[in-house]
Structure prediction request, 165 residues.
Amino acid sequence: MEKYSLLVIAFTIVFASCKSKAENDAVQTANEIQATVKQNTPGTVPTTSEGFMMKAKINGKDWEATAMMPPERPSRIIGYDNNDYISFPYDRRDMVVGEKTKLGENHAGVDVFMMDNIWGAKKGEMEITKVDEKSAEGKFSFTATGLDSDKTLEVTDGFFRILFK
Prediction:
């Protein structure tokens, strides 16, 4: 019985140390993935209160981009928060105050990556609210459905600011 108890204790110690190593490995892998994503989105710029900015409410919860891609490169307005992003179509010629763009099916495409899923807008609207020689601002809202889910995202109170070169 004593040998059996020692065997159980030894096994428990080995198992516990493996678990913490597995957890450490998982954390390290997650950090490496985030670093890789940041390295593979070169050209992004940090958001600031007076510069590039994107924010919205997603299912009632505040979301704010921490970086954005200058729109001239990808012809998209893209806001990033870690691995999540919201992406709208961009054409400098459409940056006119009052210009409204329908979003969703049979209209301009909106790509969203959040909660480990790809989402596409089904209906919504983007409106340009301010334009000058240096920047443009707009507001947006849309409903999106997930590629791998029948759930929906309600994106409301959206705001963006982009700077022109």
Notes: Residues 12 and 150 are 42 Å apart (CA to CA).
